[in-house]
Amino acid sequence: MKEKIIEVRDLNVNRSGTVVIKDANFSVEKGDFIGVVGPNGGGKTTLLLSLLGTIPKASGTIKLFGQNIDSFNEWERVAYVSQNAINFDEHFPMSVRELVALGRANRSNLGRRLNKEDWEAVDESMEFMGLTAIANKRVGNLSGGQKQRVFVAKALVRNPEVIFLDEPTAGVDASTQERFYQKLSDLNARKGTTILIVSHDLAVVFCRMSKVICVSRDVNISSITGEVDPNDILRPAYGEHFHFVFHKHECQGVFDDD
Questions:
Q1: Is residue 188 domain-resident?
Q2: For residue 43, what is the DSSP state?
Q3: pTM score, two decimals?
Q4: Number of domains the chain is built from
Q5: pLDDT digits (tens, 9 = 90+) for 75-90
Q6: 216 lies in which domain range?
Q7: Above 80 in pLDDT, residue 28?
Q8: CATH number of the domain within which 165 lies
Q9: Is 136 part of a structural domain of the chain?
């Protein structure tokens, strides 16, 4: 039986006096690659932030690695990339390598110089995300797809066991999105990293991921298999008139890095 990374029981979350997440019950297991989908305003980001303890819950329980989130303190095992991560001044002076290195900072090593082990981890993370050739470029001069991979590399440099990403491909073209999702698939397959990603790209979710969480106040989780009709999963969140046409060939292209 796989280790449970996240356990949610009877979770209710309110924002501005409105119920956003209602009576959620689900588990995330080690090695899951999960797409979090749902209509705009349905509560996807709220769900992610509540799992990270950033938004307080009204009731219910959330456990990370078997520990109640109210007392959880092993945050080095968790990484988060927000939907606004790549939006910064184009004159931002840091290089790619310097920014990725910031991911090695934690409560136990604040104020000390990075050592050889730290820099080896930085270089390994950049190599994995296909960033070695642009290590010395200014982050502000990168393309949107390159910036995405830099912030994922920064999140990965301390080897987290679970990573949360909130709409990381918003505003970039389709081929760049595909390259980015391929990197995430590699991360999940090669390192066994558990991934939860908020995405509006339903084709990518059903093509690449192992499970889907549908959020529209209610929260439902389903495994993605060849026998499952995506419409049966999605209609309760998107409405009875919703119809999703899924072309499996969309995920089979092979792309080079930026």
A1: yes
A2: S
A3: 0.86
A4: 1
A5: 999 999 987 766 666 7
A6: 4-88+161-251
A7: yes
A8: 3.40.50.300
A9: no
